[in-house]
Amino acid sequence: MIELVGVVKRYTAKRPGRGLLDSLFPKEHLLTAVDHVSLRVKKLEHFGLLGPNGAGKTSILSLIAGLCLPTSGTIRLGSKKIGVMLGHKMIYHRMTGYDNLKYFSQIYKVGNYHSRIRELSSQFKLQPFLHEYVERYSLGMRVKLALARSLVHDPAILLLDEPTLGLDIHVAAEVRAYITSLKKTIILTTHYLEEADELCERVAILNKGRIIAIDSPQVLKNISGSPSIRVSLKEKNQLEQELLKRKIPFTRDDGNFQIFYQGPDQLQLAISLLSTHRISSLSTSQPTLGDAFIALTGEELE
Asked: In this model, does residue 301 exceed pLDDT 80?
């Protein structure tokens, strides 16, 4: 279990001015990175923090991990055994992959660490490169090594910051599949919509240090509206009158319709109506977490 109650984190930052003196002696101001955040993550839940750069995602992970202290508020953890992965930064590039895992195993006092290293290197397909220097690793291999490092002591809580950032499609899919398989309490940050949707049972949407919504991905997507059918017709017809008669919501731009539906019955009715018309193109559209972010903030998720 992880619980945050009214957590605030402020940093002192310097704001350079336009003049010479202001540039030489910039004024200090307080920057609020985390603004009265409260959340509760259940045991074994996979929980996501979704938001643009600068929303406070990494700051929240750092606070939970104890890498920095909150300005105010309370953080409670169900276990002190925490694994942290902040991208691929927490590994040493001038050491071999094996020596990295050995070093952190010894810090965490892992018994029989040779066996644990073999197990993790097999799971992440690192065996052929385990005794090479990390500086020669590809980005994907470094990310896998960083994830293995965070798991070397078998933590109860796992904190993952942008675990697939910059990876190619195939490696990202491997990493996501492994994260999904873990029976641990996980908080991960991401600004990839499909990643939050795939990996997380619940998601907190953040903007400017504040949580603006928490729920399952599907509930959050429903905030932005209904799924729809986009259709272009080959000729003018009576579709508009038929939709109005049956009270099916839609928008129209000349011969192009976007028809909204709620549930399978309304979808079936819309398809039945369309089957009687000459259609030049048809596509379906489902609301996304990006649509939810826009609906909640009026801004796009970059």
From this structure: no
